[in-house]
Design goal:
The protein is about 75% helix and about 0% strand. It has about 290 residues and is an all-alpha fold. It has one domain.
Length: about 290
């Protein structure tokens, strides 16, 4: 695989796509959707996540977290496929492209989008870089929930007509939980190597068994959130289409409790990313159908 594609971690990029789909569907239901905004938001979201993944690749190599004992997709810098200098330029390019797209979104959404964009990029860089990289101190899941859930979903909805209705916040909670579950699945797999490298992820801090329960809780509460939002008339009844993903969620929860080999846990990670996209797709379809 091309080392840049490898470093972008394509299996996880759905975490950037799902919130944009849901936020845009909510805008369409309110007759505020526009294609130019949708495409630019999607591009910016993907560019930010690619930048995050590049920065993580570089930082893990520098801190010795990606060693020959690690089982999982090959890391570009640690394996020598890309030099640290090349990766730094890649990070600058990814965030630079996101910033350029952001200029158009700022024109549409105003200063709120400027704040979201600036804070998102700063937070992305600080995730594994800087004097206190919070991704190495048990706060990675919080970062993902806030920026790939709340900010991404509500921010997407806000761009269209500068409003952030309650349905966007409820949907954002569900999307953030599933995005954070992707990270938990990754960290459950890497507990031993992360601990040896001094990388204190939340899974290292609370242990593998507690992390499995955390994963199950995040996935379950994501579905419960949509059901409660429908019951309280915040989301339309057709939003319950998202629940068609429950059987797949059950398979993944069972797997993370029963599987111990790193290759099997890699499949849980990939499966969780696909689960979030399926969840987002059916939730979006339900929202759009209800608006017809």
């Amino acid at each position: 695989m091309n080392p840049w594609i490898l470093a972008a971690r394509p299996a996880t990029l759905t975490a950037a796509v799902g919130p944009v789909l849901v936020g845009s569907a909510l805008a369409a239901a309110d007759d505020a959707f526009r294609w130019d905004a949708f495409l630019v938001i999607l591009f910016a979201a993907l560019a930010i996540q690619v930048g995050v993944n590049f920065a993580n690749d570089l930082a893990d190599a520098a801190r010795g977290a990606d060693t020959e004992d690690r089982v999982g997709p090959q890391r570009a810098v640690a394996s020598g496929l890309l030099t640290p200098g090349q990766m730094r330029r890649g990070i600058a390019t990814a965030f630079g492209l996101a910033a350029l797209a952001g200029l158009y979104l700022i024109w549409l959404g105003g200063w709120v989008i400027l704040v979201i964009g600036v804070v998102s990029i700063i937070a992305a860089i600080g995730y594994t870089s800087g004097p206190v990289p919070y991704g190495y101190h048990g706060l990675g899941e919080v970062f993902v929930f806030v920026f790939f859930g709340l900010a991404a979903t509500v921010g997407t909805r806000y761009v269209y007509d500068r409003t952030a209705p309650a349905d966007a916040w409820w949907a954002a909670v569900a999307m953030g939980l599933l995005a954070a579950a992707i990270l938990v699945a990754n960290n459950v797999r890497d507990v031993d190597t992360d601990r040896a490298a001094g990388k204190r992820t939340l899974s290292v801090i609370i242990g593998r068994d507690a992390s499995r329960w955390l994963y199950a809780g995040m996935v379950a509460v994501a579905f419960v959130t949509i059901a409660v939002a429908v019951e309280t008339d915040i989301l339309p009844t057709w939003s319950l289409l998202a629940l068609v993903a429950i059987p797949r969620a059950g398979i993944l929860i069972r797997a993370i409790f029963t599987q111990t080999s790193p290759p099997a846990l890699i499949e849980v990670l990939k499966g969780t990313a696909r689960l979030q996209l399926v969840f987002a797709t059916f939730l979006s379809i339900g929202i759009l159908f209800a608006g017809l």
